[in-house]
Amino acid sequence: MLSSMVKEHQARQTAKKEIQETKRKDACAAASDLTQALVDHLNVGVAQAYLNQKKLDAEAKQLHASATNFSKQTQQWLNLVESFSSALKELGDVENWAKTIEGDVRTISTALEIVYKNSQEASASQSQ
Question: Where is coiled-coil annotated (predicted)?
Answer without folding.
Answer: none
